[in-house]
Amino acid sequence: MKPVMNSHKRLAVLLSVLAMTIVMGAIIVSVIPGSLPGVLAAAPPTNTQLPRREADGDGKAPAISFIDSPSATCYLPTPGTGTCFIQWDYLNVIAASGQYIISMTVSIDDHIRAYHSGFFQSSMYIPADLATPGYQVICGVPVDGDTSGLGLAHSYTIRARETTGLRSVNYGSVTCPADSAMTYIPVVLK
Length: 190
Description:
Distance between the termini: 122 Å
Helix content: 10-25%
CATH class of the domain at 73-177: Mainly Beta
Radius of gyration: 31 Å
Structural class: alpha+beta
Order of helices and strands: HHEEEEEEEEE
Largest sheet: 4 strands, antiparallel
Strand content: 25-35%
Mean pLDDT: 78
């Protein structure tokens, strides 16, 4: 015949095991360096509302590299058309160690003009040939009496994003040469 344990004895055993677990957990947390409260205090918040740039351990160096986008130029291939093109020699960004670049976008005058997406790549390099002849914009005409030969200035924003949610952004502007389209309307007599 098997011994039968009554419910009071089971409850007492369960409570003693629970108390022992709590005591052992408190001892482990107090003995291990960087106790749980310290670890929890160092953890990043889970609900960030605004985009922000995160930095690695020393708080000075960014975890995602800056976007390298040298020599933004605006050129006029065909005079008399009023159409200019903005182009970069290349665009380049590198993800933090162990992360991947998700996307890179190019916006000109607050309109997205290009979206490049990555697939398990730690860096993204976009050569000028990929966007040939460039991004089409209006050249603009010089203000009356202006002899500089410069037209409109266009602002651009280049954004990159990596798998941890970190972002990098470059802002700038480029001025185009002055040019306007010449449209001749025929004179028709009735």
